[in-house]
Amino acid sequence: MYRKYFAWSFDDGLEQDKRIIKTLKEYEMGATFHLNSGMFGDKTYVGRIGNPGMREISVEAFESGNCRLLPYAPHFRIPEDEVRDVYAGFEIAGHTCHHVNLMTCSQEDRLREIADDIISLSDLFDQKVTGFAYPYGMGAKQSRKALKAAGVQYARLAVTDSAFLFPEDPLAMPLTCRFTSEKVFPLIEQFKSKEPEDHDLFFLMFAHGYECDFGTAEANWEKFENICAAVAGQKDIVCCSIGQALRHHAKD
Ligand SMILES: [Zn+2]
Predict the structure, then answer these.
(1) How far, in Å, is the centroid of ligand 1 from the Cα of 72?
(2) Residue 127 phi/psi, 5° resolution?
(3) What is the 8-class DSSP label of residue 243?
(4) Contact 102, 138 (CB under 8 A)
(5) Tag placement on the chain: N or C end, fewer CB within 10 Å?
(6) CA of residue 98 to ligand 1 center, whole Å
(7) CA separation for the pair 228, 213 (Å, rounded)
(8) pLDDT tens for residues 50-70?
């Protein structure tokens, strides 16, 4: 029998994840959190330019008040001494140690940034980390060797593909929809009404916690709750982490 899987994917390990996790637990939903093991506790602000554009600025620049033309939200990473407790029970995945651009960095940096991140996160969280998300959503071609060397089994891009398919190439995994997209609810309705007739179906929803703080029409906390409410509790949809979805799919 074929099934439908829904997974949340959150990047960067942000303070907003605490509120997100509270809601995920209420709705009994799984999720994958992609963390940068060399940046715990770092603080910046992000301004929303468009959809999904954003600009990152320092806390000093934000506090100086010179750049308030955009809606800004805190991009404060959870400190290292808290992350184990915050993310207990959820899948942890890599995102490089320092959020590097894998398209443009050296191969030496690529190998180190990926491998060290996977090792640090596996040690810190006491779980075998096998997932990854490309910082800025790019660099699949350049990073394949480094990902394989680090034992990574799947890696998420930032390109969207709303066909509800499991990825043909798990190291170049598209997402179904961004949280900030206006297509979220129509896509969820399509997914709910689709029957997994001759293959499994997969919905991968990608978000950053800070997006909930923007408070704009397409990026707010109520929308996050409404997505959870729309998907959770459907008896034909398995809500789990990306890793769980891929493992179940491999067995189906
Ligand atoms: Zn990121």
Answers:
(1) 17
(2) -140, 150
(3) H
(4) yes
(5) N
(6) 10
(7) 17
(8) 666 678 888 888 888 776 777
Query: Does CATH place domain 4-251 in 3.20.20.370?
Result: yes
For residues 108 and 251, give the distance between their C-alpha atoms in angstroms, rounded to a whole number.
36
Residue 146 is which amino acid?
Answer: A
For the chain, the domains span: 4-251
Reported as half-sphere exposure (CB side, CA atoms, 13 A), residue 115 has a value of 11
Beta bridge pairs of residue 7: 204
Over residues 121-155, the pLDDT tens digits come to 999 999 999 999 999 999 999 999 999 999 999 99
Which residues fall within 8 angstroms of residue 63, CB to CB, at 6 or more apart?
A: none
CA of 122 to the centre of ligand 1 (A): 19
> Measuring CA to CA, which residue among 44, 39, 15, 43 is closest to residue 120?
39
Separation of CA 94 and ligand 1 centre (Å): 10
Give the position of tokens 């034992």: 151
Q: What is the 3-state secondary structure (H, E, C) of 37-103?
A: CCCCCCEEEEEECCCCCEEEEEHHHHHHCCCCCCCEEEEEECCHHHHHHHCCCCEEEECCCCCCCCC
The identity of residue 23, as a single letter, is T
Say whether the peptide bond before residue 52 is cis (omega within 30 degrees of 0): yes
As given in the structure block, the two tokens for residue 120 are 């640090």
250 Cα distance to chain centroid = 21
Residue with tokens 């990152």: 56
- Alpha-carbon gap, residue 224 to 209, rounded angstroms: 10
Question: Tell me, what DSSP letter sits at residue 27?
Answer: T
Q: What is the pTM of this model?
A: 0.96
Task: Report which of residues 68 and 48 the model is more confident about.
Answer: 48
